[in-house]
Amino acid sequence: MWLILFLLYFSGDMVKPITSSLSINDSAFVCNEKFEDNRQYFYSSHPYTSVSPLPTIYFVTPTYPRREQIAELTRLGQTLMHIPNLHWIVADDFDGCNTFLDYLLNKFGIPYTHIASPMPDIYRSFAPIPRGVANRRAAINWIRNNGKKSGVLYFGDDDNAFDLRLFSEIRSTQRVSMFPVGLIGLYAVSTPIVKQGKVIGFFDSWPANRLWPVDMAGFAVNLEYLALSPNATMPYRAGYEEDEFLKSIGLQMAHIEPKASNCSEILVWHTQTKKEKSAVVRIDSKILESDQTSLGPLLRELEALGVSHISSSSGIKAHVSKNGKTKPLSSVL
To answer: What CATH number was assigned to the domain covering residues 7-269?
Structure first.
């Protein structure tokens, strides 16, 4: 099964192009969508059916193929499963439709849209690379193209950590809400400074002459407010994406709604998983292809996910351990 998914991953299958409001250098495709909420709640009935409808949170996650991708999205998906009235937009920096992403997203039962939104090649030579911009731009255009003018937009990276209270707070955003993000820069935090309920400045170790020195995970935008700026966009300029986007929607200091107890609590953390190259493990192809033990199917799945690569001629030689001793893998077959 995983071999089939692996082949589909690299088939370059693309559907539903997004073209409106994209520049000539952008291309994006909706790979799959699901609007029905199939999550299973630990209640006799849905816990939110007795209250008035909640504004929908459009949670945008840029992602890209790498060894840790599926692990990151699995962890994030487990968090989002707890959040009602949420639509997850997963935008993948890949020029085809990653079928395994659809398989994973469907397992959560969360309404979602999966977009293939590769970064234009011209920007891959930039230093630093403006990673995630093409994905967020594609998500913004999906929101516009589908006429979404009620609800809240939030950008959440696949490796960040979220307090569930954050979602309750940003849901009431009228224009733009802001809040602290932990583990950012030399100060270990990026945050607005609030006095008497109003934002008066910012505490961030990399001001860089930015009007809005905030992290991407540190603000949410009301869609009705976003719709007032039909040309709002995000530039391919690493480090200035947040600043230029907030400028493009006409944000003013008086518009900012401080959350997280007037920005005195951290409800989102900029955690980052250590990146490693995919391991190359030397194993006889007969073992990889065999279903006599659990090892063959497991190794094929890891290969399909890009976590490790199996070679019969190079890489780390693999053994099996039993009774405190190592033996050749062939001994388990």
So the answer is: 3.90.550.10
